[in-house]
From TrEMBL, chain B:
GO molecular function per UniProt: NADH dehydrogenase (quinone) (non-electrogenic) activity; quinone binding
GO terms of biological process kind: ATP synthesis coupled electron transport
Domain of life: Bacteria
Enzyme Commission code(s) on record: 7.1.1.-
Subcellular compartments: Cell membrane; Membrane
Principal place of residence: membrane
UniProt KW keywords: Cell membrane, Membrane, NAD, Oxidoreductase, Quinone, Translocase, Transmembrane, Transmembrane helix, Transport
PANTHER family, A to Z: NADH-UBIQUINONE OXIDOREDUCTASE CHAIN 4L, NADH-UBIQUINONE OXIDOREDUCTASE SUBUNIT ND4L
Family: Belongs to the complex I subunit 4L family.
One GO cellular component, as annotated: plasma membrane
UniProt name for this protein: NADH-quinone oxidoreductase subunit K
Amino acid sequence: MTTPITYEETKMAYHALAAVVLPLLAFVVNCFISKNKAAGWVSTIAVLLGSCLSIIVFNHTFNGADIHVGGVWFTVGNTNVNYGILLNNLSTIMLLLVNLVALPVHIFSMAYMKHDQHYGKYFRYLSLFCFSMLALVIADNFVLLYGFWELVGFSSYLLIGFWHKKEVAVLANKKAFIVNRIGDIGLLSAILLLFNQYHTFDLQQLFGQGGLVQQAGNQTNVWQWVAFAGIFFAVCAKSAQFPLHTWLPDAMEGPTSVSALIHAATMVAAGIFLLGRVYPFFNTTELDILAVSGCFTAFMAATIALTQNDLKRILAFSTISQLGFMVMAMGINAYASSLFHLITHAFFKCLLFLSAGVVIHEMQHIKDDNKLDIDPQNILYMGGLRKILPVTFIATLIGGLALVGLPLTSGYLSKDGILIQAFEWSDTKGGAAIIVPLFMLVTSWLTAFYMARLIFKVFFGNCRLDAVSGIKFHNSDRDWRYWLPLIVLSICCLFPVFSLNPVLYEQSWIYKLFSPSNFLERMNIYHTIIPVGLNIISVVVIYYAYAIYIRDKKFKPFPQHNKMFALSHNQWYFNSVYNSLFVKPVIVLGNALFWTDRTVLDGFIGLLKKITLTLANIAAAFDKYIIDGLLHLLTQIVSYIGNFIRSFQTGKVQFYLASMLAIVVAWFIFKTLI
Amino acid sequence: MISLTNFLVLGAALFCTGLYIVMAKRNAIQVLIGIEMMLNAAILNLVAFGRFDKSANGGQIFALFAIVLAAATTAVALAIILNVYRRYKTIEPDKIDQLKD
């Protein structure tokens, strides 16, 4: 490092490092006590200590200078690859956020996974996951970042497929893993291209204030585009954006507490975090692409969420939609708002998933206790749970209101901020750009509708299992490990945590973290009219949902066999389209290659084999009959001669005499003739 | 006057007879007899040729030597035949073929 590091900075760096390493430590410890019920406490205490440390780090670095410590890790040729920690506002707030969200999830998990026979293994994976995400956040260069990026993908693979005896879970984690691989290839290519251009992996040197990327200016060459495509795919895969979003709904097969963690501040936030890290890299056209893609994803996922019946799937599509908001906010240059929404969303989505976990736990108990044949995640079987699960009900309500973005919640501040900025952006762009904020408005109303539908179906009305007489309830949220996280997270979903003024997002302290925060001046009517209009219509939409689902059940505006309904219910047919577009051709190609291998290659080899065999047979015959034959002939001749000569050696005197006589006579005849 | 040719013809006939006996007879004694006949044929020739050597009578002298040698040879051959008989219990030369292998 070029600048000298003060004692305080070193201390903070060690604090941050400790906060990151603690879950790893918990992971290692849990490897040895995997059969023990203490595993949950080990992981939870690690995260608790990490949270305290990250609060200290955050307080210290809040709006201070960046802390960048590290050293040379290894050298390849003339290139030094560093290890190190980069603490700026973005990484410290992410560090804090990941820890703060992981803590309630850990506490919740201790109760939720209590009866699972792989309790220890669960906390091992959870700690590994937390470690990789925390390390990803504070990594100071692309090599480390990529490593932990992969590790996040891998540990999420372990967690999604945690119930590995369930086939759907295994399919889901495979899908998540493979889709994330596509994004990883993109990220890797982008890193290599950036390295090729700027000869460094260091994030601060590349993207810092006055860094290499800023010096290079607004690049539009072809490599810029390829690198952008790589980063775009990486973000799409991790943050479940179109076109790589299909893994996230399937990933709901993992334990619900895992879903809460993956959806809140960790896995899916990594994509937004990456956008935040490399933000100066993008040129204006690329930002527009991000805006449009985020807008489309948000809208698409919201329409799908309208008709899903699986409790967790609705929330999963909601996450995809909200991440679309964040990507779009990045695209319209509302950097600070995007991260603000990431932070608020982390709390209320975590809250919603944990509440869903309580509901599913309750339904599972009802199913088991009453020996029913129902899917505990299907909202069509739920209803009237507000009396049985009061804490969960309030928590879900607060989380839902925050997600919809009604006033007094944190979601109101961040989401309306994004929408206002989107309108201002479209003003500066002009023309068709107005489509983006309009679609975001519609998406917000859709959000209001599907959240209202979810809450009404689950908590209001009568229990749909009334047909079963004498039903027994479990009252899941009596356990402090259930209600404490819910209450804490509920408080974090309210406005005072982020801004003292409940209606003016501009006054939130988050904006002070990320400079320059633009669109903050209340220079036009948008700052008033959009929140008002948005929320009034949201309330109308919620009332509409109430009318449909609670007040008057005969009021059925949605024909269930409509094409639109089918489109939404089947998740825009993305899975089947991908199936026929990519999976089937690959299988066909695989079969064709298999056939080629079997018939053409193996046939050719078979032919070669036959030719060789024939040649060998000919050679063998030649050897046997000609070579050996010659030798045998020779031996025959020799033995014939030998036998012939031998035949004279009869041992009979008279025969000797006769032969002598014959020879002498022959000799005389011979002499006489010549 | 009996001509030399007649003696030589008789000698040749005797020799051939002796030769036949030596080759054909199965009894060693008879073979011996055949050999004597061939010797006698040779002696007859010597005596016949001896007529042309009036001064030294070399042919007759040769004949005497040959007769003595034939007697000695026959004695030795008889001794061999006796020994062969003792060993092989036969005097047929056909059956005494252990020299072969």
